Amino acid sequence: MKEIELKLQGKIKRLTNKTFKFDERVGEGWFSAVYFLKACEIARKYKPDNIVTMQFFQKHHAVLCGTDEAIALVKTFAKDPDSLEIYSLRDGDKISPYETVMTITGPYQNFGFLEGLIDGILARRTSVATNVYNVVKAARASGIQKPIIFMGDRDDHFTQQAGDGYAAYIGGSTAQATHAMNEWWGKEGMGTMPHALIQLFEGDVVAAARAYHESYPEDDLIALVDYNNDAVGDSLRLARAFGDKLKGVRIDTSNNMVDRYFFDHEDELGTFDPRGVNPELIFAVRRALDSEGYHHVKIVASGGFTMEKIREFEERKVPVDMYGVGSSLLKINIGFTGDNVLLNGKPEAKKGRRYRPNPRLEKVD
């Protein structure tokens, strides 16, 4: 957790314009709400000398992310960006409801058209970072920090992967599923085998694992064991075949399936939901592996995990060693607002909004 805490104390060097691949049409206003474009044109004609301060905030306890991206956007596409003065918190800072996270001061016509884009960047990145951070916290409820693999590649448009992966990194995830998710922070994607690989070997998990291990001998061998809906049986088959070479098994049972184990142990049914990846199935796999001396084989659980489900597993001390989490981390549940709050250095804002100075803000060069 030391690295995560450093990130949350704002110790990470800011990303720069070189990191991001912006669409050049941003500068033309293509992605801006039309009324912002019209307001900028009117300001240019009637109030060209006015200086405004725009401040950004949100309404939750959260882990901030997206500031570097938003600043780079302004530096790239604002008209005369040198005319602007920007103060900002950093990616990874913990923030409170209504706390000012960024201010931009300058002629409105030079940057006002970017307001909605800045709101959107901060909303998405902060939502993902906060979701991941909460899951990471849940995964240490038992007193031991369990790694979190960010597996959000199939839950949103692929063009979001780089930014989402960076936000997940800021939130504390251990690894990401694709190379693109690691692009902004300089790592590579992590993964083992999909169900499709086992299908190619007609359901023979041992043959699929052997082909994988021979092809990628430097990788830790972690094999899926739910393809045949027999997590216990396939875990033992793999452990017997590979011994110490098998580093882990991943259980990804569909939420509408009941593993074969429970049909052979009906006496265990009746007090819990046996579908999907449930605590009793994990306990059964751990007991089976330990009974034959395969204590070294780790258990990775994935499929439908949320903060609440992970916390429940950890409070029950379910023997999961690592969690794979996807769709629940991509819910956009934190919205940002940009408000003009100062006009030529004096308070001027719509009713209900006011300038909220924040001593934590740093001037951006």
Describe the structure in your own words.
This protein is α/β, with parallel strands linked by helices and 365 residues long. It has two domains: 161 residues, nicotinate phosphoribosyltransferase; 189 residues, TIM Barrel, CATH 3.20.20. It contains twelve helices and 14 strands. The strands form three sheets. It has a six-stranded antiparallel sheet. Helix 8 packs across helix 9. It is elongated and about 80 Å long. The N terminus is likely disordered.
| Termini Cα gap | 31 Å
Main sheet strand line-up: 13-12-1-5-3-14
Q: Mind summarizing the main beta sheet? A: 6 strands, antiparallel
E-strand count: 14
- Assembly state (oligomeric): single chain
CATH class of the largest domain: Alpha Beta
Q: What number of structural domains do the residues give?
A: 2
Indicate the proportion of strand residues: 15-25%
Q: Gyration radius, to the nearest Å?
A: 25 Å
Q: List low-pLDDT spans.
A: 1-10
CATH hierarchy: architecture of the largest domain: Alpha-Beta Barrel
Arithmetic mean of pLDDT: 92
Determine the fraction of residues in helical runs and give it as a percent range. 25-40%
Q: What name does the CATH topology of the largest domain carry?
A: TIM Barrel
Morphology: elongated
Helix- and strand-based class? alpha/beta
Order of helices and strands: HHEEHEEEHHEHEHHEHEHHEHEEEE
